[in-house]
Amino acid sequence: MLVYVARRIVYVIPIVISVALVCFLLVHITPGDPLVAVLPADASQELAAQMRTAYGFDRPLPVQFGLWIWRALHGDLGASIATGRPVLTEVLRAVGNTVTLAIAAALIGFTLGLLFGLIAGYFRDTWVDKVATSVAIAGVSVPHYWLGMVMVIIFSVQLNWLPAVGAGPGGSGSWGWDWEHMKYLILPAITTSVIPMGIVTRTVRALTGDILSQDFVEALRAKGLRELDVFKHVIKNAAPTALAVMGLQLGYMLGGSILIETVFSWPGSGLLLNSAIFQRDLPLLQGTILVLALFFVTLNLLVDIAQAAIDPRIKRG
Amino acid sequence: MAVMSDTALQAAPITKARGYWATVGRRIVRDKVSMVCALVLVLIFASALLAPWLGLADPYQGSMIRRLRHIGTPNYPLGTDELGRDMLARLIYGGRLSLIIGILPVIFAFVIGTSLGLVAGYVGGRLNTAIMRTVDVFYAFPSVLLAIAISGALGAGIVNSIVSLTIVFVPQITRVSESVTTGVRNMDFVEAARASGAGPFTIMRVHMLGNVLGPIFVYATGLISVSMILAAGLSFLGLGTKPPEPEWGLMLNTLRTAIYVNPWVAALPGVMIFAVSICFNLLSDGMRSAMDIRN
Fold this sequence. Notes:
The structure holds 2 protein chains of 2 kinds.
Chain A: H1 2-28, H2 45-55, H3 61-73, H4 87-122, H5 127-141, H6 144-158, H7 179-212, H8 215-222, H9 227-255, H10 258-264, H11 269-278, H12 282-310, H13 312-316
Helix pairs in contact in A: 1-12, 4-5, 4-7, 4-9, 4-11, 4-12, 5-7, 6-7, 6-10, 7-9, 9-12, 10-11, 11-12
Chain B: H1 2-11, H2 20-30, H3 32-49, H4 87-123, H5 125-139, H6 143-154, H7 158-185, H8 188-195, H9 200-237, H10 248-255, H11 263-291
Helix pairs in contact in B: 2-11, 3-4, 3-11, 4-5, 4-7, 4-9, 4-11, 5-7, 6-7, 7-9, 8-9, 9-10, 9-11, 10-11
C-alpha cells in the first residue's frame, strides 16, 4: 500500500508543475497590458514603467515563471492588483465559502444519487427505475445557472421564503452555523447538488445492474442468502467506482462553482474568479485558478488512494 | 457432399444479412424516446435556420413603451424582454448563435481528438506517452474552470468561446479515441492488413477509423449537451456573445434583473437550453444502447 501511495504521489509531481505552467501562461496569452486595470487613464509613461517593474512584468517570461513558482512554494502568490491585498489570503477565504457550499451540495446530491441509483438498478425496467432515470437525466441536462434563477423566482420572488443572494444577513461574507445563515445556503446548495445527483444516480444504476447480472450473485442466491445480504455484496462491489465518481464530482463542485456563485452572489472562489476576470486582476486570476486546480489534483490523488485501500485489485493494475 | 452444399446454397436466404449500421439504425428508429428527441431537435434547428422566413418580429427592434410584457400578451405570445423586443423572435433567432457556439466546439474537438487518439493509440511508444501525458495535464482542471480560465484570459467573444470549449473537449475525446484504438490495434484484421503491405496511414484510415468512430461518436453526442450548457454559461457570465445579439445564455444574463418584474419571461431562454441539452443526452443514450449489440 505504501509503495502504491508513494508511486501515485511521484506521478502527481509533473502534473502539478505542468498545471502551474498552464496557469502562468494562461494569463500571459491575455491581450493587452496587465496594468491597464489599475493605472489611471492619464498616467505618465514613467509611472507605467515604475508599476511594471514593481509587479515584475518587465522581466523575461521564464524568469517571471521561475520567480512566481519560487514565491508560490513559499506561500506567496503576489498581491491583487485591484485591492492590493495578498492573493493567497483572498483565495483561501473565498475557498472556505466554496467548500461549505460544495459539502452541503454533496450531502444532498450524493445521498439522493446513491439512493436513486441503487433502487433504479435493483428494480430495473420497473416504473421506479423509469422515474429515477428521468430525474437523473434531467439533473445532468439542466443548465444549473438557469435552475438557480428559477429557484430564486419561486422561493424568493414568489413565495418570499428564502433570501435570493449573499451568504448571510446584512451582506456579511462570513459563514455561521445558525438558521439565519443556513437560509442563505439552501437554494445554492440544492442547485449545485443537481448535477452530481444525476451523475451518481446514472453511475450507481449501471453498476448495480452489472453486478446483479454476474454469476457470483446467482451463486450467493443459490447458497440461500437473503436478498438483504445479496444487496450488501452489491454495495461492496459498487463502492470503489462510486467513490471515484463522487470524488470527481466533489472536485467539479469546488472548481466549477463560478456560475452558481454568480447567480447567488455567493462569496466563494467562483465569485472571486469572476471579479478577477472582469477587473483584469491577473495575479488574482492566476492564483485562484492555481489553488482550485491544485485542490482538484489533490482530491483526485486522495480518491485514488482511498479506492486502492477499499479494493486491493486496483493496486496491482 | 457436393449435392448437399448445393441444397444448402439454395436454402440460404436471398437477401443479405443486415449490416451492423443498418441494425443500429433500425433499433434507434424503433426507440420512441430517441425519435421524439430527434424530432424536437429537428424542429429547433429548422426554426433557427428558417427564422427570417417565419414572419417573426424583428429580434433587434426594441420599444421602451412595450418593455417586459407578460407571456400571452396579444401580438407578443411569449412577452417582451427588458428592451421591449419580442421574446418569441429572439428565442427562435437565438437558436442560431446558441446552437453554433454549443455544437461547433464538439465538432472541432471530435476531429482533432479522434485524430490525436488514433495516432497515439496506433503508433504507441513515446508519441503515445507525449500525447497522453499532455492530455493528463488538462484533466487536472475541472472542465468549467478550464473553459472559464481560457475564455477569461482570451477575453469575451464568440470565437474565443468556441476556441476555449474546443480546448476543453479535445483531451476528453482524445482519451476515448486512444483507448478504443488501443483495443482495436492488436486485432487480427489489422495484423492482416499490415502483413499485406498496407502502410500506417492506410491502416489507420481504411481499417481502423471505421471501427473506432462509433464509440467516439456516441461520446461526442453526449458532450454536445455539456457544451450547450457551458457555451450558454460563458455568455451568461459575459464571456461569450455580446449584446444585442440574440443568444440564449446572454438573454438569461440580461433578463436576470427582470426576475422581480416578469419572472417567467426571464426564465424562457433557459427552457430552450434545457430542451436542446436533454434531447442530445437522451439521443446519445439511445444510440449507445442501440449500438450495444449484446442486448
